Amino acid sequence: MLCTTCRKRPATSADGRCTTCAALRRASAGGLMAGTRAPRGEGPHRLRSPGGLAKAVVVLLVAVVVADVLSVAAGLNVRRVFVAIAGGDMEAYGLTLQAHLLHQRAYSLQLLALVPTAVVFVLWFRRVRLNAEVFDASLQTMRPGWAVGAWFVPVGNFWLPRRVAGGVWAASTRADEGRSTVSGTPMNLWWAAWVLDLVFGRYAARTYERAELPQEVVDAIGLVVASDVLDIVAAVLAMLFVRRLTAMQGERAAVGPTPPSAHRASDPATY
Asked: With CB atoms counted within 10 Å of each terminal CB, which end of the chain scores lower, N or C?
């Protein structure tokens, strides 16, 4: 029979709870447990608040959205010029250089916003993964190092980071006082949007690079604009995911890490 609280591990106590949930139930009255030890993983892990990194990620994602909006405007301008050319307006040819230049500058701004955002997001992702190792190492199917490495595995980066995130989400869910589940919708929507944005964005960029005739440019830049809009959606969903998981870890830290009675231990934990 599964635990009546977390619905993940076998029940071991008379009240239908697993060892972990039973221990957390006993410890919850005392709040965060001082002096409890973190489970073994890739070295000792201590609880550290991801709040500062989360705020930085959100601010940078806002910058990404702003850059995307500018790119959408520049892309629509390119489309307007080439629609006129496709319709036989010869004077519009004189506007193509300026239109392409504006779009290229908008693309450069996107890169300037994206690179630091990706770096800080991965740092935040690693932080919450290390916290999950303290909360409940038994729910982690991949070692902490994969919180960084999974993003750089060709093809595998389409699902490995989501696998890491799933373990972190599960471990960050409070299992005390009958709260057995938290909807994973924010995580799933973020991941689906990110994968779709990545795939569609590459397709749109390649189509635009191959476009030569005016009508081909019109069609291709339409795909690029749609890709930018999708990137905005993915960025907003990423903000929601980061804020939700960060809040969950704060609530989970108030309950305390899994006590030594539930897992082997080695190092003090503080939040």
From this structure: N
Q: How many CA atoms lie within 13 A of 230 on its CB side?
A: 20
Task: Answer whether residue 33 shows pLDDT above 60.
Answer: no
Q: How many CB atoms lie within 10 A of CB 73?
A: 14
In-domain check, residue 81: yes
Domain that holds residue 63: 46-258
CA gap 267, 44 in Å, rounded: 6
Using CB atoms within 10 Å of the CB of residue 185, give its burial: 0 to 12 exposed, 13 to 18 middle, 19+ buried. exposed
**Between the CA of residue 33 and those of 184, 196, 211, 252, what are the distances in Å?**
27, 42, 62, 12
The tokens describing 111, both together, are 């890169």
Q: Among residues 47, 28, 31, 49, which one has the least CA distance to residue 267?
A: 47
What total of structural domains would you count in the chain?
A: 1
